[in-house]
Amino acid sequence: MYSKMTADEKFRIMTQEPVNRLICSLAVPTIISMLISAIYNMTDTFFISKISTSASGAVGISFSLMAIIQALGFTIGMGSGNYISRLLGQKKREYASNVAATVFFTALFLGAVLTFLGLIFLDPLVYALGATPTIAPYARSYIRYILIGAPYMMASFVLNNILRFQGSAFFAMLGIATGSILNIVLDPIFIFVFKMGTGGAALATIISQFISFCILYYNSRIGGNIRIKFKNFTPKWEIYREILKGGLPSFIRQILGSTSMICMNFSARPYGDAAIAAMAIVARIFQFAMSAVIGFGQGFQPVCGFNYGARRYDRVLNAFWFCVRTAAVFLTSVAVFGFMFSYQIISIFRKEDLEVINIGIRALRFQCLTFPLSSWIIMTNMLLQTIGKGFQASVVSASRQGLFFIPAVIILPRLFGLLGVQISQSVSDVFSFLLAVPMALGTLRELEALHNEEKRRSHATHLAST
Asked: What pTM was estimated for this model as a whole?
C-alpha cells in the first residue's frame, strides 16, 4: 500500500485527514524508531558498563562526539525536511527534488571531512571531550570507529528527516529500527565474544548504521517519495540559506547537547570516574524517555509543514495543542515512575558500584521533578522551526542545553559541589520553560490571525463566485 501511494494522494491525506489521527499514524513509526535507537543507546551503555566504571565513563565522553555528528546531520536533515514539506505543500515537487539531492551529497562530504580531521587529531580530541587519563584509552578505542562511519551516519540522519517530512515515517522507521536492532545483537558479540571492548561496541555501531543507511536510501526511491539523484545536486546559496534557516535550531540544540555533555564531564571530573559514569547513565535514561516525545513531535512536524504551506492554519493550531496535551501527560507519568524507582533503574547499569548508584539516584530524581516541562519546550521548538521562525526556534532550542544549562553546570558545582552537577538540568528546564511560554503564545496568536484572515478571504471569494 505504502509503495503505491502517489504524491497527490499523500498531499490529500496530509491536508484533509483529521489531525489527531494523522499525527498518531505518522508518530507511531517515528516513536518506534526513536525508542529502538534509544534502547540501543541504553544497551550500549549497559554492555560497556560491564567492562568497568572507566569504560562506562567513556560512553559519556563518546556521546559528545556522537552529538556533533547528529548536530550536522540533523541541521541539514531538519532544515531540508522543513523546506521540502513546505515546497510539497505548495506543489513545487521538482524544486524539492533539487533540495533533497543537494543536502544528501553535502552531508556525505561534511562527514568525510569530519572523519579525516578526527582521525588525525584523535588523541587531542579525546581529552578535549573531557576524558580523564583512566577513561581515555576506552574512549579512544570507541571514537576511532565512530569517526570512520561518520559520512554515512550523517547522511542517514538526512535521509531519515527527508522521509519523515514527506509523510513517510514508516519508511524512515524501517531503516532506523533495523540498524538499531542489529546493533543490539552485535554489541555483546563484538564486546565479549571477540573481546574487543569499547572498540567492539563502536564497530557494531558503524556496521549497523551502514545497513540502516542502505535501507533508508532504498526507501527514498519508493512510495511517492522524492528520489535522490546526483543530477539534481544544486549547491547554491538559495537552498543552503533555507536549510540553515530551518535547520539552525536543530544544530544549536544538538551542538549544545554535545557542549553541555563536555561541560558536564569537566564539572563531574573532580568527583572521579564514578560521577562521570553516573551522569552519563542518567543522560541515557532521560534520552530514552525524551526520544518518545521527540518521536511524537516529529509526527507533528510534517502535518504542520504541509498545512502551513497549504494555508490550513486551523489544522496547525489543532495539531499543536493536541501534541502538547499528550506529551505533558506522558512525561508526567514517566517522571513519577522514575522518581519512585530510581534505585532500581540506576542499579541496572552499575549495581557493582555503590558510588555510581548513589550519585545517579539523586541526579535522576532532581531531573524527574522538572521533566514534564519539556513537553511545552519541545513542541514550541518544533512549531517555530517547522513554520520557518528560525531565530525564535533557535533561541528555544538553545535554552535547555545551552543558554541556561551550560552556565548552570559551570556555576552551580562551584557553589554546591557535586549537588550542583546533579541539579543543573532541572534548573535549566525551569528557565527554558519560562522562556518558551511567551514565544509560543505569541506565535499561536499570529496563526489564529492568519486563520481568520484566510476565512475572510475564502468567504469573499465564495460571495464573488455566486
From this structure: 0.71
